[in-house]
Amino acid sequence: MIPESAGATPYAIFLLADDYLSAALLAHADPKIGTGPVRLLSYHAAELFLKTYMRSAGETVDALRSLSHDLEKMALRAAALGLKLPAQILAQSRKLSANNDYVRARYVVVREPTDISDESVLRCCRTIRSSVVKALDMNEQGVPQGGHWLGALPPDYAVGR
User: Fold this and answer.
1) Which of 134, 127, 139, 129 is nearest to 150 (CA)?
2) DSSP 3-state assignment of 137?
3) What band does 55 get if pLDDT is binned at 50, 70 and 90?
4) 72, 97 contact by CB (below 8 A)
5) Where are the alpha helices (DSSP H) in the chain?
6) Which of 4, 52, 56, 153 qualifies as a cystine partner to 157, CB 3.0-4.6 A?
7) How far apart are CA 73 and CA 67, in angstroms?
């Protein structure tokens, strides 16, 4: 069996995150698709962008998985590892986590007046993406301009597979 960490480079995770963000933008533009898929795809993209940074900083796949789908925990962990995120992103991630929005986007179709708009969720995701691109010295397509590891390879990284 191929270990989950095989190939889990920051660049590979980033490309997957970009795919989810592209899917969220397409879903948002389609009037036949409701708010749930847009939000879920956006949250997953935001998670993966944060995991891109954390993986680059040496976090193991198990450490990333332990954060579950808690966007606030991920944002705080990435910030603790040196990612510069605007205060608004930290506040939005706190609100999204407090409202259990990730789970609600998957299972509940009722919107609350206090919910962050779909547009704001997409903007939050794009801002996280931009912060990661800048921190990891990537071009706009996500291609590293230098090395894409901030530190040593994580201990679970399968070299030579």
Assistant:
1) 134
2) coil
3) very high
4) yes
5) 10-29, 35-56, 61-65, 71-80, 87-98, 101-107, 118-135
6) 153
7) 6
Residues 6+ apart with CB under 8 A from 71: 43, 46, 47, 50, 93, 96, 97, 102
Measured distance CA(124)–CA(49) in Å, rounded: 11
Every domain of the chain and the residues it spans: 10-109+116-135
Q: Coil, strand or helix: which one is 26?
A: helix
Contact 43, 75 (CB under 8 A): no
- Per-residue pLDDT of 111-145, as tens digits, reads 777 788 999 999 999 999 999 999 999 998 888 88
Residue 35, Cβ neighbours under 10 Å: how many? Answer: 16
Distance CA 8, CA 2 (A): 12
Say if residues 45 and 87 touch (Cβ distance below 8 Å).
no
pTM of the model: 0.91
- Token representation of residue 67: 């954060």
- Provide the β-strand partners of residue 41: none
Q: Compute the distance between CA of residue 41 and CA of residue 21 in angstroms, rounded to an integer.
A: 7
The three-class DSSP label of residue 138 is strand
